[in-house]
Amino acid sequence: MSEAVSILESKGFRIVIDSTYQAHSKPLEVLFQEPEVGANVKVGRTVFITVNRKTPPSIPMPNLVNTSFRNAILTMQSYRLVMGDTTYKPDVAAGAVLEQWVNGRKIAPGTLVPIGSRVDLVIGLGLSDQIDVPNIIGMTWNEAKSLLESQMLSINPIWEGEITDSAYAIIYNQQPEAINELDFPNQILAGDIIDVRIMQSPSQELLLKNQPGSKKLLGSGNEDTAEISSTTEVQMPERPIGTINRDSIKRRNISAPSQSRKDDYIKDNQDKIAEREIKKGNPSVIKKGNPVKNNPKKDTKESDIKHSGGISDEYQ
Predict the structure, then answer these.
(1) What pLDDT does 265 receive?
(2) Does this chain's domain 2-52 share its CATH topology with 58-124?
(3) Looking at residues 140-164, what average pLDDT do you find?
(4) All structural domains of the chain with their residue ranges
(5) CA atoms of 77 and 83, how far apart (whole Å)
(6) Spatial distance between the Cα atoms of 107 and 101, rounded to a whole number of angstroms
(7) CA–CA distance from 112 to each of 61, 115, 285, 309 (Å)?
(8) What is the chain's mean pLDDT, rounded?
(9) CATH assignment, 58-124
(10) Which residues contact 302 (CB under 8 A, 6 or more apart)?
(11) Is the pLDDT of residue 207 over 80?
(12) 2-52: which CATH architecture?
């Protein structure tokens, strides 16, 4: 610029200087002039020159996140920003801008950046291979965030209660869980989202309650009850020896012997019965060869009937 000013002043021209910025031009380089080169002008004419600014002006960073890659390029051109490097990572939003970086740091929308800055973009690649869901219950926010980012997983935090130090707040719940109710690992596609609930200081009881797997299904008293039931033997009441269970007789349809069975037995054993009656002093009651009639004065009691043969003890 200084060289151009010296030449114009030596020719007797007056000079008016303006400035703009072009990222590909050198600082203070003359970009435009009016009148143009070779035009016939009067001596003392004013010449307008435009030079490149030494320090680029700052503009608010546009929001490129969640826009398509093509729209991000058009937006950067309108803001006079330069396209930098592009990297890809697994994410459910395939082809969308996930992050925007300037000078090696993530930049938020609205932050002032110099015109012509190089903007690096992180683009979603879509869901990739399945990986095991990590268990982050009980971890601090910083620990969980670092772990999930290293495994190409997105995180959706839900903050609950008063948070005094977010870096050391504790995660007490996550979805999906690391293992299912059958204690098998849950799997998730790389790039998918894990929802987490965070409190500053959750109780130990709450952390244990939300542990993954079958632990949450076991009640506090179930194990003790199962142990007692497995070791206790059922004692059956003892029955006195020689007693007859009349209910079992009814179930087995066992009844007292009929009168015809008694007559058949007396007929087949007349000799023995006669000898017994003679010994008892009743020789005139029974004669050999004649059928024996029942003594109507003798009552047969149910207790005299044996279960095995059903015959009174009187005739045995």
Answers:
(1) 65
(2) yes
(3) 89
(4) 2-52, 58-124, 130-214, 255-315
(5) 8
(6) 5
(7) 6, 9, 139, 115
(8) 75
(9) 3.30.10.20
(10) 256
(11) yes
(12) 2-Layer Sandwich (3.30)
